[in-house]
Amino acid sequence: MALEITEANFDELVVNQDKIAVIDLWAAWCGPCKMIGPHIEAMAEEFEGKAVIGKVDIDSHPSIAQKYAVMNIPTVLYLKNGEMIDKVIGAVPKKKLVEVLEKHL
């Protein structure tokens, strides 16, 4: 299951990790976000122990979206030590999300 990432646990779960973090920035009202939600959940299981996979509700935690200048959702950020190393914008197939992650593992 994908982790629920908040402003309170962001440093612990994302910044202070030695693994790549894949973060889905989404909102409950966003139709395309609902399309990639199952991809993120599946990736959380597939890459358990290899990467940190989580979701950030931007309505509840807007500072995370602001920090990475996210203007559109869904946006999936790929972070290492809190630094963005890649991103995917929009509702894309799971294959694309996995390809980007595997490129950085």
CATH architecture: 3-Layer(aba) Sandwich
CATH superfamily: Glutaredoxin
Strand residue content? 25-35%
Order of helices and strands: EHEHEHEEH
Q: Give the uncertain stretches in residue-range form.
A: none
Please describe the structure with a list of short key phrases separated by commas or semicolons.
single chain, 105 residues, alpha/beta, Glutaredoxin, 37% helix
Protein described:
The protein is α/β, with parallel strands linked by helices and 105 residues long. The protein has one domain: 3-Layer(aba) Sandwich (Glutaredoxin), CATH 3.40.30.10. The chain is built from four helices and five strands, in the order E-H-E-H-E-H-E-E-H. Strands 1-3-2-4-5 form a five-stranded mixed beta sheet. Strand 4 and strand 5 form a beta hairpin. The mean pLDDT is 96.
Topology summary:
Elements: E1 3-4, H1 10-15, E2 20-26, H2 31-46, E3 51-57, H3 62-67, E4 75-80, E5 83-89, H4 94-104
How would you sum up this structure in a few lines?
Helix content is 37%, strand content 28%.
